[in-house]
Amino acid sequence: MGKHPEKQILTELSDYQYGFSDPETFVFKSRKGLDEDIVRQISNMKEEPEWMLDFRLRAFRHYRQRPIPTWGVDLSDLDLEDIYYYVKPADQESRTWEEVPETIKNTFDKLGIPEAEQKYLSGVGAQYDSEMIYHSVLENLENQGVIFLSIEEGLRQYPEIFREYFSTVVPIEDNTFAALNSAVWSGGSFVYIPPGVKVDLPLQAYFRLNVANIGQFERSLIIADEGSQVHYVEGCTAPLYNTNSLHSGVIEIVVKKNARVRYTTIQNWSNNVYNLVTQRAKVFENGTMEWVDANLGSKTTMKYPACFLMEPGAHGEVLSVAFAGPGQYQDAGAKMIHFAPNTSSKITSKSISRGDGRSTYRGLLKVLSNAEGSKSSVVCDALLLDPESRSDTYPTIEVNAQDVSLGHEATVSKVGADQLFYLMSRGLSEEEATTIIVSGFIEPLVKELPMEYAVEMNRLIQLQMIGSVG
Amino acid sequence: MSKQNVKQSDKLKAQGLKPFAFTPEMIPDNLDVYLQKYRQKAWDIFETTPFPTRKDEAWRRTDISGLETSQFSFPLNREKPLAKFPPKKCLAAINDDEKRSGQIISGIFDKIIELDQTLVEQGVIFTDFRTAEREHPLLLHKLLDRIVKPEEDKFTALAAALAQDGVFLYIPKNVVIKAPLHSLYCGAGEFTAFFNHLVIWLEDGAEATFVHESVSPQPENQTQIFHNGIVEIFVGKNANLHFIELQSWGDNVWSITRERAQVMGDGKLEWIYGAMGTHLTKNFSDIDLVEPGAYCRMSGFYFPKDNQHFDHDTQQNHLAENTTSDLLFKGALLGNSQSVWQGMIYVAPGANGTDGYQANRNLILSKGAQADAIPGLEILSDDVRCTHAATVGKIDENELFYLLSRGIPRADAEQLIVLGFFAKIMERIPFDGVQHRFVKVIKEKMSSAS
């Protein structure tokens, strides 16, 4: 298979069914590259309060001092001066699909978003390039005080709650790309669930890139007040270009006492997108945070969803699946930091590498000295599909408390010959048999997804597997 | 190697380490030009290489800024063994039938070198490193600089340049040595520096068991001792080496060592590493499985207390088809001690049929102790089975409760559990004598802590 790269690339191109693009109809596009003027311009166009402009400028200055990380993945091909940092797609955000500009609406129709909204979602947000163009939530939830808005509207309508939590989970100085996002953030969701409110159907945000060489800097803030519950799902696609695009989001989540938040990502960016994301939740007393993270697309992903377990009884989980096909590097993982006694965490990571794809699990499990009685388990499994593929595991465990119970296991192997033989003896082709084995391998994640997403996920895996054998 | 001098001085400042007081005049003499050049080259590398800093991945978790680099010098006189030191138990036979094939005592004492005459006649060489330089220079031309290179870092270069001590074990083709060989390396003194270089070379089909021990007395004051060493191991085709390294350095020793074994086709290496002493240990142990069928099992145990800091960095390199590695490191921690185990399994492209395993188990016995476990896998080949596991935990309450309910006092019960924790590693040491000694050390450590 490795002998016919051209053929393979063609197959890849035709496999990615979201690779189409619209004509550029933006209402504003900043010039390429980044300086203080562009940061001011973004803030100005969003008509932000003074403190937010100051925050952006502080972040920008910090970003300028920070080196681009050289550990892990190779970012040398990512030219940060060759990127449009702000592309405004429409004059305003809409609350009905009819108000959304025609081309953009057509795109989301093709992606099946309005249909899904009708059927099984509590609310939908849709971002196109730099701005949310649509945001809507079921009326009965709104009546219960649930807030589901674009981040900009959140800042405008609820300045106090916004300011109380914004950047408290991911500070500017956290990492280079968090600093960059803090300077130029645009789009993303603002979610507040009042005490005791349980949102049954998921809220979904959908992120779409259209313009080439764009940088998308989604910023989301989710606050689940005491005893509340919510499931937030994000999906991502982009057209295929032969130049690089960048998606660098920051997601901050606050899970208060007894609250429960699940955040599911199905990342299916096209193979020219750098996906460098910081996701973190602070979890308070007896709260539960679950990250379900599927990385299928992008050229390069660096993404390590984190839980800071702040108070006793807090629980964090990460369930992560990465599929690195030809030319892809999925550097994914998870971080669990136990700050308080009797906190618990669980990380399950599954990765698959195919062609010359490389998937890496990179994790951190840290138990601070007063976090006695903490428990954690980390399990990583990797599946290699052919001789060119590569898999790495870099878990880090730091324990500074005595009364703890931590375990980590990782296994890397190839598709079992006996499993394959069994399926093929039943009349399946090698490709079909391998696909079934891969689907079985990631089943623990798929079964955590809402049904519609599970179907989608299985379909995406099948697409990734086309041409995998022979 | 960084040749940017500006950068080097920056790094020196960052680390806060003063230069060592060693001078090129301290390089031991060699009549042999090749060996002289090897040491001189190593010295040049030492001089132009900056100290590692905590920005270097391998040194992130180990702070050597307290090493009083400028204070160290060679021990002035070699002494006769004293009544109390080295401890008699270290000189005693290492197994019950009291037989051994040879023994080297070196370090602070006048060297004592013994080897069975029949082995001498078979061409076995077992001597100290300086003697080997004098008597076997041509052989060393062939073997030195092949497995560990002075270029690897500043400390490796320094040890290569200045080694006054060490062991050269050479076993010709198909020579099988039944009884174990033993080497005891003794340090002592105030602000003394000990450099040693071990070369262990088994030609095809050779077999041996070699026990190497390092000891020094507990310090009476705040002075430091610096130990810096190299261990190079070659296991030829079908050869079989059982290498047991034990260190019970005093609590004032800072030990930095670079060790690597190369195992050829169907060769077998059983490597055991036991760490009890030092103030700070930074050890690199690599295994290169370079031909099909090569096998290595590596077992480590460590038991720091008080403010001891042990850092073990292991690497299992599968460079050919059908190679097997199996690593188990176990540690218990007392007081405010800290342990780091960082291990990597690397599988090269095409190294199909690899079976790699690594596990690290930690038992935290007191509140201030910290255990870091950083296992890693880098797999560039698909037909493999590689697994790793790491755990950190405390004494199991149920086990403790059971023992207490049987009327066993708490301290004894805890001791039993710790001994049980280490039992799996102890079983891998084929000598009762050594096993007993380490059980004793564990008991001493446990009782002094409570």
How would you characterize the overall build of this protein?
The complex is a heterodimer of chains A (470) and B (450). Chain A is α/β, with parallel strands linked by helices and 470 residues long. Chain A has helices at 5-15, 36-45, 50-65, 102-110, 113-120, 139-143, 151-157, 159-165, 176-184, 417-425, 430-441, 443-446, 451-465, and strands at residues 28-29, 87-88, 123-128, 131-137, 147-150, 189-193, 203-208, 215-216, 219-224, 229-237, 245-247, 250-255, 260-267, 273-283, 288-295, 300-303, 306-309, 315-324, 329-338, 344-353, 358-367, 374-384, 390-399, 404-414. Chain A is globular, with a radius of gyration of 22 Å. Chain B is of the alpha/beta class and 450 residues long. Chain B has ten helices and 20 strands. In chain B, the strands form two sheets. Chain B has a ten-stranded mixed beta sheet. In chain B, a hairpin with a 4-residue loop joins strand 1 and strand 2 (112-115). In chain B, helix 9 (410-426) packs antiparallel against helix 10 (432-449). Residues 1-14 of chain B have low confidence and may be disordered. Classes of the chains: A alpha/beta (470), B alpha/beta (450). Chains A and B meet through strand 23 and strand 24 of A and strand 18, strand 19 and strand 20 of B.
